[in-house]
Amino acid sequence: MSLEESVAILNCRRGLRCILCCSIASRILILFLMIIWRSLFTSYDTSASINPPCLSADTYASDYPTSDVRFPNLGAAIERSIVWDGVYFVRIAECGYEYEQDYAFLPLLPGCISILAKTVFAPLVPMVGYRAVLGFSGYILNNLAFVLSALYLYRLSLAVTKDQKRSLRASILFCFNPASIFYSSIYSESVYALTSFGGLYYIMTGSDCSAAFLFSLSSCTRSNGFLNAGYICYRKLIDALLCRKGAYLRILKNLLVAVLLSLVIATPFISFQVFGYSNICKGCSITETRTWCKSRLPLMYKYIQEQYWGVGFLKYFQVKQTPNFLLALPSLSLSLCSIVHYMKLCPEVIQFIGLLSFSQKKLSTSSSSSTKSTNQSNPVSFSQKYSVPVSQRLRRHRPNIRATMGEDYLYENPSKFNKAKKVQPSHLVILPFILHLMFLSATALFVMHVQVATRFLSSSPVLYWYASQVMEYGGSRRKLGYVIWAYSAFYILIGSLLFSNFYPFT
User: CB of 180 within 8 A of CB of 53?
Assistant: First the structure.
């Protein structure tokens, strides 16, 4: 190992320790703010602790009557902190899927909460009650998932930006992002961020199976998780386009792997829809059957979102929703700026529609001697493979690199850390991130409740990369960096105040 590689490894380990401390400190801060605000103000809705018995009498909670709890006040305090969507998650963890609207919440988070409450934290049930232990399990799980997701984001940022300081800033920004209150509450944001960032990291290191597994967990956490299959499809498409002429079996293999891994990723979400259909639609008479059950393609999730939450294309474009649009404006503006910024840096991105002709043009400029079969047989990380122009990449020898979580840095040249010139991520690497963010932003603006954009877009790493890069510049751009920090700090304060007291916030 060279001196430069040793320095890079040492710097990365220092960065990981820094992110670990920042992520833990940010969670302590959020939990402290939640406790302070709840003690100073009265909740707008005091019905959070109301919990009727499960429809099924055969439940784990029935073994522990609430009258036998040793510390009822502590248990009641924990139960009162379960607000908004957390009420649904805890109820599902306790009683299962009882009502039609419950199926809007995917099963990974409530399933993990239930398992923790029945195993690791089971000794606490006689002390504070089963529902309080469920809430406590949810808090522990989500805060731990957040810390791990911050570490994964740091490694992912190193792989994409190849700039340690920029990656460090981006990860710290994530630790104190405007939607922080949701990452410490019983919401799916933390688990989704962990599975998404982890999957993206393994995509960059070439571990497709590990990436597909984590992406499948993300599709079992939130409905938009199956979109992560696009990253694998994109990588395999690029691999297929860059195969030497006549390598039809290799092209077919890449496309077949893309299809199979995409099915793996989408299977949990599809299975959950089938589960809901069989529970709600099967065995009902014609008069009792729900309208969506009679559809040619019964989409339970789409119906529930429209029926119970009023989600739909342009349905939120009403004058009375102007405050919610203003609440989402900073997040949507940051998203737009990020997209425009990277599109300008990488003009080839605009040619995405003509990707095939673009790749063929690059291939035609490379020498025929660059397509030796020995070079194609060695595995290489995605970030390394596409961090240089295609024509140069095909002419160079591809090293045999399999990055691991603790030792490899995914860098072709660790000495880039010491160069004054900043390294820009390759357009081939950054393109799927931009397209994903564009789709999420359009969905948040035109289809969803627009105020949800703050937390909905917070799982996109592009936002943090852009904000981190802006802070490197001087003049007006540097002032924009201060604005981003002020925006995050303000939303952390106001969000923890409103959300923890059951007032509407995103």
Answer: no
Cα(137)–Cα(120) distance, integer angstroms: 9
pLDDT for the residue numbered 506: 76
Two tokens, residue 242: 């860059």
Look up residue 178 and give its two tokens: 């405007």
For the record, the structure tokens of 310 come out as: 């009023």
Model pLDDT, residue 405: 29
Cα separation of the two ends of the chain: 49
Distance of alpha carbon 45 from alpha carbon 63, whole angstroms: 29
Query: Is the pLDDT reported for residue 349 higher than 90?
Result: no
pLDDT at 304: 93
Separation of alpha carbons 132 and 145, rounded Å: 20
pLDDT (tens digit per residue) in 53-70: 788 766 666 566 666 788
- Judged on CB neighbours under 10 Å (0-12, 13-18, 19+), 156 is buried
Percent of the chain with pLDDT over 70: 77
pLDDT tens, residue by residue, 478-502: 788 889 999 999 999 999 999 988 8
Tokens of 19: 């992110």
Residue 311 token pair: 């989600």
- Can you say whether residue 314 is alpha, beta or left, with left for phi > 0 and alpha for psi between -120 and 50 degrees? left
- DSSP code at position 419: -
On the question of pLDDT at 166 being above 70, the answer is: yes
Contact predicate 200/235, CB 8 Å: no
0.70 exceeded by the pTM? yes
Q: Are 429 and 461 in contact (CB under 8 A)?
A: no
**3-state secondary structure labels for all residues of 405-454:** CCCCCCCCCHHHHHCCCCCCCCHHHHHHHHHHHHHHHHHHHHCCCHHHHH
What is each CA distance from 78 to 46, 53, 298, 389, in whole angstroms? Answer: 13, 18, 38, 55
Four-residue CA torsion sign, 62, 65, 71, 77: positive
Distance CA 333, CA 343 (A): 15
Q: How confident is the model at residue 249 (pLDDT cuts 50, 70, 90)?
A: confident
Which of 327, 322, 90, 42 has its CA nearest to residue 187? 90
Give the tokens for residue 42.
Answer: 């009265």
Query: Where do the H-state alpha helices sit in 119-228?
Result: 125-128, 130-161, 164-175, 180-183, 189-205, 208-219
Mean pLDDT of the region 316-333: 94
